[in-house]
Amino acid sequence: NQFNESNRAWDMWWLMRKTCPKNVRFMISTLNEENNTFANAKTSCPSAETLEVTSMSKEDLVEMVSTNLARYNKKLTTYDDRLLGNQMDILLTKSSSPLFLIAASEALRKFGIFEKVSEYIKSLPNTITELFSFLVDEWCVEYGKMFTEDVCGLIALSKD
Fold first, then answer.
1. I want to staple 40 with a disulfide (CB 3.0 to 4.6 A). Which of 12, 64, 71, 123 is the partner?
2. Strand residues in the chain grouped as ranges (E)
3. How far is residue 123's CA from residue 91's CA, in Å, rounded to a whole number?
């Protein structure tokens, strides 16, 4: 739910109810519990169709990470290698969040020491917030703190 809290956007007052043309559709992606967005949308448009999106299966998560890494000719072990372990399982035990896994696989794509990939995966934090803090710290070392802070600040400003 990326609605801005200004102007009570979560209340869904802005959804066209009766004046909306029949060929116009709104797609809202939200968590059921978050800011009552789902309940407010259902109240605003009681006849709206809803589709629950469930968690991705382990097979889908493996495929997502593998496909992302394969674009750069990288891969993780998916079996218990006696030296490297099962790198995919190590990563998936960190989080099953697609955002987490894509961010982690992007970091892995840039990590260049093959023999230390398993250690690197183990060093990754277990939450999205902690992972992004970890990555920002890495970027500060790689690109410089001032540049990284400027880029992150510009991204934050560009949201609205």
1. 12
2. none
3. 10
